[in-house]
Design goal:
Helix content is about 50%, strand content about 10%. By secondary structure, it is an alpha+beta fold. Strand 3 and strand 4 (about 190-200) form a beta hairpin. The two termini are about 25 Å apart.
Length: about 350
Amino acid sequence: VCVCVCVSLNEQIGTLDTLVGLSDDLGKTDTFVEGVVKKLASYLSDVLEGDSQEKLAENLKVNGDAPERFLANFRWNAAKYPIKLPLKNLMEIISKQVSQIDADLKTRSQQYNQVRSSLQQLERRTTGNLMTRNLGDLVKKEDFVVGSEYLTTLLVVVPKSQSQEWRMTYEKLTDMVVPRSSRMVFEDNDHCLFTVTLFRKVVDEFKLHAREHKFVVREFAYDENSQDSERTESQKLEAEKRRQFGPLVRWLKVNFSEAFTAWVHIKMLRVFVESVLRYGLPVNFQAVLMEPHRKAHRRLRDTLDQLYAHLEATISGPQETIDIPGIISNSAEYYPYVYFNIKLDLF
């Protein structure tokens, strides 16, 4: 795919020194804006929580189009970024706009993440195995001796393979265990949860002997008000998550579009500035957007090097030791034409 892109910014070019400094600033701004674009895309994917790539692509639109289609039909937005402004001012407008998006993203993501994290913590307490999960939703008031000065009810986690052993031995682990007081109230794939009633004075001794048999006494005190409070808190968090979800997704979609648009405008500014620095005045160049087939990158590069070798007679193919201040550093590949890459793999 090859598309010609018109960039008419020659009214406010400025001095050579200005362009050299602007070139460096544009490179930094390009990196920053690209980072914000990727953060927005990544967080939208995170918020959608495992939705398909097709669903995600439906939300990652730029002015209603897929990013690649927006690029192919790109036109400079003169209403938003007036071409009569100095180039540095244009860069600053874009940088300020994207910085505000970045700041808003931090605020909104912190708010949503806090609700989601609190909800996940509650969910973890009500899921998982019997050794770690909250037991409050597995038992009822009737399972316990409540209000007794002398008696108490314990919850014991027993490996499933030892459930019969528990039934045969729990009364003998210590004195003062209420006979036939144990019953199973829940089981999962690996463990069973049993109640047992005994005198308070032998609780510590019972725990010690239970541990010798690999029976785990869970620390638990039944409190009906506490269980109701936890359920209410979970419901509140679920409602708050739903309340924030819709507006957050809409905000991410709108600002992904804004940030991506800003990013492409920064790329076009870079193309313009680097071309003036490379080829001088008057402005006489054409910006072209190219999308090679997957396995044709090397062939395309060789073809371009041959076509435009006359623009830089001393350069043959990419070099990594060229250092022209303000134009290209020795850490980048250098070609006889101005080249910038736009990566659309946003994750």
